[in-house]
Amino acid sequence: MARRSGKGEPRKPHGSGAEPEEVLRAKYLDYCSARVCDVFMDLEEERVFELARAAEQKKGVAHGVLNFRDVASILVEQLVGDLALPDFETWAEDYRRNPQEYEPYMLGLWKTTVESPATRP
To answer: What single string gives the DSSP state of each residue in 1-36?
Structure first.
């Protein structure tokens, strides 16, 4: 897994060691978003156009009819389907055992979605 961005801060110790589910869900979405971003950024330009054309065909519309937002949304859906992202429960279980394996790949966006001891300085 190539990490494109994010600070990948070291895990801060928490009193009980367990993070609230809200924090874990935010981190899970952050991790999955970062993985999709990495794959998208690694696509060759030609492949992006191939996927865009396939998206148009899937929607049954003529070439050029979909706007950028529609094409990007369909491309992201395709990438998510192609990636072997774990479901939340599987990810959370592994994250609790090995947070150091996941945190370098997070973008840090999770911190803006939750207010918890984990996000306070």
So the answer is: ----S---PPPPP-SSS---HHHHHHHHHHHHHHHH
